[in-house]
Design brief:
Two copies of one chain form a homodimer. By secondary structure, chain A is α/β, with parallel strands linked by helices. The first copy, chain A, is built from 14 helices and 14 strands.
Amino acid sequence: MRDLMSLAERPGIITLAGGFPDTESFPREKFDEIERVMAQDYLASLLQYGPTEGLRELREAICRVMAEEGARCDPDSVMVTTGGQQGIDLSIGTFVDPGDTILAEGPTYPGAVPTFTRYRAQVRHVPMDADGLIVDALEEMLDALDAEGVRPKLLYTIPNFQNPAGVTMSRERRVRLVHLAHDRELLLVEDNPYGQVRFEGEALPTLWELDQGAGWVVYLSTFSKILSPGLRVGWVAAPPPVLRKMNLGKQAADLCSSTMSQRFVVEYLRRFDYREHLAHVSGIYRSRRDAMLTALEEEFPAEATWSRPGGGLFLWATLPDFINTRELAARAIERHGVAFVPGGGAFCDGRGNNSMRLNFSGVSESTISEGVHRIGNAIGEMIELQKAFGGGE
Amino acid sequence: MRDLMSLAERPGIITLAGGFPDTESFPREKFDEIERVMAQDYLASLLQYGPTEGLRELREAICRVMAEEGARCDPDSVMVTTGGQQGIDLSIGTFVDPGDTILAEGPTYPGAVPTFTRYRAQVRHVPMDADGLIVDALEEMLDALDAEGVRPKLLYTIPNFQNPAGVTMSRERRVRLVHLAHDRELLLVEDNPYGQVRFEGEALPTLWELDQGAGWVVYLSTFSKILSPGLRVGWVAAPPPVLRKMNLGKQAADLCSSTMSQRFVVEYLRRFDYREHLAHVSGIYRSRRDAMLTALEEEFPAEATWSRPGGGLFLWATLPDFINTRELAARAIERHGVAFVPGGGAFCDGRGNNSMRLNFSGVSESTISEGVHRIGNAIGEMIELQKAFGGGE
């Protein structure tokens, strides 16, 4: 995916591939104000190593950010990570031995797939529908694995505005999922980078909150989407004994996260209401999502389907079976100057080859329309090729 | 080690445990100047994701920093890492399968030990003397391993001002080591965080340069000691095919390093001569080292020995056999208010129990004298205890 992103940096290429939040609208005067206080009060300390678990003031602020979603937490249950990605890496690294089975939605976050591979996890995908992960299907899968003598180490899930599917797990399923986790002693790794990037509907309870401190949920999130990804500041909330293990992993991985970035987040949250900034960028994303949905109606073939996310950064489109989206992506970049993420990268079992992830947060509405138009042209060419050469019927 | 560091944050405790460079002397007007240009010209981009391999301008600047030590490199052979620690983690993660044997100096960097453990490497230690790693001993060890049918995946080495031993590998041994690596097809992971933190003597050639592009050296370094550790900006130089593999590891680990930190380093290096800052802090460290050597002569028992580093941040002291430095460290922190790193953490095979690592960069000369005085008292108590209760002779 990152390789595609760097291809997509060539001039003239429209990229719907990345997960870039809008950073253009961040106000310079706020940056200047933060920098002033950093220089004046924290210069020596922000240039120094910090504690592995992160600055105490930041962990306290993170608890307040979590409380916005009704997730109660205390600073001793929080560890700062180098972006949300490191939270995934440390979760998998802490719980998974080579060859262990883990569960993840199908499709799952494409950026988690190399992490699963890195720790040699065997991944089984749990299907989703418009209401998110299908808990019945999960239960059947657990039974089947049990019959095989396989005990999955964890379920990695993104309940809100799932990346890449763009769907949200319903309240009823969340409750059932946590009950099931308790019954079956299944650890849930809840990744929630997008929960507050909401355009529509009400916030639903986090799995963390529904667990009520029973210890079956490790919660991951990040400031990447609510403030800035360039800071690389994310976090893990977990029961302290789990956190101690993950802390050892972080010591080995990078000792601590950028103290300068952490201090920036602390001073930003102290001075400004992040929810205002978030409301502003979410408004931008909503318009961009609408532009994308309109363009898809106009440009994609009638057989195509796609999700209609109520938040987040991505939607997931599925094309007729005979269209391989990896081939389509190569054609789209080379001949049409547009990039997206082919769906195969969101599965560990070879599926997803006629699907694609489209990002609507990173570019303007007119660019989105033009980008989808170009993908539509590339699809049209593949359909023509199929008519000319393909199919035995 | 990090746990000790957090203990050592209690008020009144003198810590000679950490590896804290001096950040107090960083000039505020330079920080302000950099922040101004960051706000004016790079605000949206420094808040955004960057490429996994790091900002191009930073990779170019890194090549110039390496050139100061005579190490030629091009930006395509460089990847930015989240501190030097991530360079170690990615090197081990890329080359080591669980159960593989690797080689490291004995003692080795205590912060690398959890990384070795994380990837389940079997570590064999190569002995050192005042001229660094003993290449004859390495050769014998390779022969012995060969006879066992074991092929070590790599040698992790810190040729300059080794952490924790405080010794530097001689020129002759460097030449022999690289020849041996070529002959025996042994990958060298050269960690060089301290090479430019030199108080005495001439710079010696890096293994990277001696390898002359043959591909048997992966080079690691960091801005932690030459600018600031709080930025968490380090780097790897490696042949591009190796770097591509490590790039995949970095995607899984944290996607990219803090763009804000990277931009800060770029703009700092563009405007100021980092060698001036380095000369300034190195002068401070030299005086602190001298204070520590003087205090050791006065306070430590006659049977103790220690290294006399010509640069870097650490020295290594060895006490009489009967003194367990883990016990000593507990006594020193609890009863005498002083922290150091017990030597056992620098070995993977149970050795080092009568040794300790002492840091001389992080606190003032008078604090160093007082700290060594306190450790001396703790040692005195242990010697008294030994006389009263220990020993069967």
